Amino acid sequence: MSRIKILFISAITLLILSACGREEVPGSKDRLYIRASAVSPEGESNPATRLSNTGYLVSFEAGDAIGVTGIDANGNILDICNNVRFEYESASVENGLVWASFVNNRGYDFVERVEGATYFAYYPYDPQWNGKTLEYIIEHFDVQANQSTKENFNKSDLMTPTAAIAPSNTELRFTMYHQMSTISIFYNNEWEPDGITPRYSIVLDSSSYPADLRIENTYRAFTSLSTYELRRRYLVNPRKTPKVKLSGYLKENNFRYFSKLIEVRAGTLHSISFEGEPLVPYSDGVDLGLEDVEFVDANGETTTLNHKVIWSKYNLGESSGESYPFDPADGDKGSKRGSRDPYARGDYYCWGATFTQYNNGLSGYNGYGYNNYFDKEYKIAPLGGTIKETEYDVAHAKWWRGKWRLPTENEFRAMYAGCTFEVVATYKESHKRYMGVVGSTPYFDVIKVTSKVNGNFIYMTTGGYFDGTIEAERDNEGNYTPSGDGKYNSGIVSSKTAYYLSSSASPTILRCISYAYFTATEQRIKIDGSRYTGMLVRPVYSPNEN
């Protein structure tokens, strides 16, 4: 079960009425139908680590089972509802929460109603909790010593409501919170030629505790569309293990290491990242002096970054380490192996993807759109979550590494408030280096972004966006062909406007992200960009951010 994926979520709890099939059973009593939502763990920011997330999206999957127990008005466990096993049947995503329906071994999705009774659910189901109260289960639960397998990890992931609940009309609507604490380690590792086996293993040294702590070597689990997700995580019981010390290093390269004492608590996610050496030098960045510039955030509050942001001089796709199967056409910006040209537009990426989705002879993808997106259920991050410095951050995890990463929404806001924007050049560029054909040649603007604070500047090229193939595709009747989710293969859109990915998920639309949208005359943060839309990337790093 891919329960947790790298990502702070606010624990929004919405009471959604069940629409699943409610079977008529002759002679049955009044019924309470069961729904459950699993709330993501809260991110815990640790100053000595580079990586802190805003929550991993949590969901139930086939085979998952919860136990449901009823307590009568006198505090006694109901005989007709004593640790009844219900198995996951289906789910619906509503406003960022995944609400799951469950059925028991008779195929019923309800329990009998008893006047004055309250009920609780817990995950994962275990027959040893027959006749036990919620407080007893939480107090006596413990994690598996070896969590290196998916099965054992799931057995360690206790989720419960905060207390037994009374029915709401004809429903029991359980909001499940994590009772354990999650420790996650990510590092931008290198892989063997198979693309699955990490080249360097992580070693925990003898100063780590507790003694039975086991962080198994990172592995890449196959998901779909030839994509993999990284996993390295461990659950601890904060009631029995209130403190954890992690001290480790890469076996072959001891210069990549960490050492951190963590005070764990229930429902928190502690994320730690190896930095290592960047593949692109930090000297390719510019300090615009924006750390103390006031800007208005998404909540309408005036604030500042309080940390330095170094902006790269060029877009992702223009470093010397990235390559293309074809040389550019005459007059095109960029080069086959990256030119470090500040005017060149670079590559397009979907949010969370570390690969391009046009058919460039390397990725095998044929366009941007829902049909080709690797995370169609939007499990990477919940509403308001982030992929900053995670394995889904294309600059940090894939190409530039080190401290390089995607900018946050607020870092773009600080840029807007602290800089001027001016078009200084215009050029057109074919798609030959992507597709091997010249095709259309859209025009782009080069915008000079100059700091009001120190006068330093960078160039940011407009690139539009893709909700389809690079070249527009039409059917025999001349209509654009569909690329999925109501979008069409209309080629590049709005080439004279800049669309740049941020690391922030949309706060209100699950399938969308927050992104930078600007021209020389208008600068905005928009929250309605589809996660599968192809946009440009401008890496940044923060030398002094906690």
Describe the structure.
By secondary structure, the chain is mainly β. It has helices spanning 134-140, 150-155, 394-399, 409-418, 432-435, and strands at residues 4-5, 31-38, 42-44, 57-58, 65-71, 84-94, 97-104, 110-112, 118-122, 159-160, 171-178, 181-187, 202-204, 219-222, 228-231, 233-236, 243-250, 257-263, 268-274, 285-287, 295-296, 302-303, 310-312, 419-428, 443-451, 457-461, 465-466, 482-484, 487-488, 492-493, 498-505, 512-518, 523-530, 540-541. The strands form eleven sheets. Strands 2, 5, 6, 7, 8, 9, 10 and 11 form an eight-stranded mixed beta sheet that branches. A four-stranded mixed beta sheet has the order 3-19-12-16, with no helix packed on it. It has a three-stranded antiparallel beta sheet with strand order 13-17-18, with no helix packed on it. A hairpin with a 2-residue loop joins β6 (84-94) and β7 (97-104). The chain is globular and about 80 Å long. The relative contact order is 0.13. The model is unreliable at 1-28 and 45-54 (pLDDT under 50).
Mean pLDDT: 81
Q: Bin the helical content.
A: under 10%
Percent of residues in beta strands: 25-35%
Rounded radius of gyration (Å): 25 Å
The helix/strand class is: mainly beta
Question: Termini separation (Å)?
Answer: 32 Å
Low-confidence parts: 1-28, 45-54
Main sheet makeup: 8 strands, mixed
Shape label: globular
Task: Supply the key terms.
31% strand; single chain; 8-stranded mixed sheet; disordered N terminus; 4-stranded mixed sheet
